[in-house]
Amino acid sequence: MELGVLTAQPLGHMDRSDAFAFLETLGVDAVELGTGGLIGDDHIDRRALLDDEDAQAALQDELDAHGLDICGLAIHDNPLHPDEERQERVDTETRETIRLASQLGVDRIITFSGLPAGAPEDTVPNWVTFPWPQEHSEALDYQWEVAIDYWSDLGEFADEHGVDIAIEMHPNFLVYDPVGMVKLREATHERVGANLDPSHLWWQGIDIPKAIRYLAEHDAIHYVHAKDVRVYDANAEIEGVLDNKDFGREEERAWMFRSVGYGHDEDAWRDIISTLRLVGYDDVMSIEWEDGLAEPTEGLEKAVNMLQDGILRKDADVDWVPE
User: Fold this and answer.
1) Which tens digits make up the pLDDT trace of 114-166?
2) Structure pTM?
3) How many CB atoms are located within 10 Å of the residue 312 CB?
4) Helix or strand or coil: residue 31?
5) What residues contact residue 210 under an 8 Å CB cut-off, 6+ apart?
């Protein structure tokens, strides 16, 4: 397994050369680069790179100079948005990102499942989390029809370019848990799979090693993020975890994203790493850093140091097993 970093949040304030140089000092193996959407495009210009072999070669030279690979292109947004203009823009950006990934020799993009409105005439996305009253179940049925149609088509497009689509299971989108992820994958295309981000699952009460095993049983893990979260019981035990307070109201929130190691301890992360190896995932774990209590470069450095110590890089040796 190798260690990557999504450069957008912690290093968006740096230009690309400085960001790459900083990651080299940390011993990081790969970078996940944002190409637009909600994640931004601080370190590459998608349109400038697309179909431009000279620009792509220059990027590769810069990566090589710092011993880095690209482990994924991130285009987090809502490709199922009911506003037609926005939906078309996001779809265009997503397809361009798939094409760019193929041209760069990158085998996946990372995004969200999207979230439609609750009915064809509605204008606002609608996150349905309870089946009653009945109109909510009907809205959910409609949303799945929209999603299956879209992701079937986009899966075919991605397959034509040899690129996987890793969907981050995230609240306020249609797919926010492993069961929904498998449902979408099985109804659409094998190119559609999971970006396993423990943080969004932990605060929902999901057991991460069990989620890994479940997704692996359906061959559904395309990518892994390393992001931590801490549930603060003093607040969660009063109001639950469906917390819609602004992230700036840190003392009042039921949970917060934290730097790796500040939400769950080293044992929890070692268990994740071991379970990933157990199910055959031998690829990149990419740090997505978000933490309102830490300075970005310091928080990222602490996350890297903890994961560097826990990641198993060499193949397992079974010769010690007695006959």
Assistant:
1) 999 999 999 999 999 999 999 999 999 999 999 999 999 999 999 999 999 99
2) 0.96
3) 13
4) strand
5) none
Rounded Cα–Cα distance for residues 147 and 126 (Å): 13
Could you give the C-alpha distances from 241 to 63, 226, 236, in angstroms and in order? Answer: 40, 21, 6
Residue located via tokens 């080293």? 266
User: Using CB atoms within 10 A of its CB, is residue 98 exposed (0-12), middle (13-18) or buried (19+)?
Assistant: buried
Verify cis geometry, omega within 30 degrees of 0, for the bond prior to 133: yes
d(CA 20, CA 7): 9
Token pair recorded at residue 305: 């140091």
| Cα separations in angstroms, 15 against 12, 67, 198, 300 | 7, 17, 29, 17
Parallel, antiparallel, or unpaired for β 228-231 and 255-258? Answer: antiparallel
CB 66 within 8 A of CB 18: no
- Side chain identity at residue 85, one-letter code: E
Contact of 308 with 3, CB cutoff 8 Å:
yes
What are the two backbone dihedrals, phi and then psi, of residue 72, each rounded to the nearest 5 degrees? Answer: 180, 155
> How do residues 44-102 score in pLDDT, each as one tens digit?
999 999 999 999 999 999 999 999 999 999 999 999 999 999 999 999 999 999 999 99
What is the distance between the alpha carbons of residues 228 and 206, in angstroms, rounded to a whole number?
13
Structure tokens, 124? 């606002």
| Phi and psi angles of residue 79, each rounded to the nearest 5 degrees, phi first | -75, 0
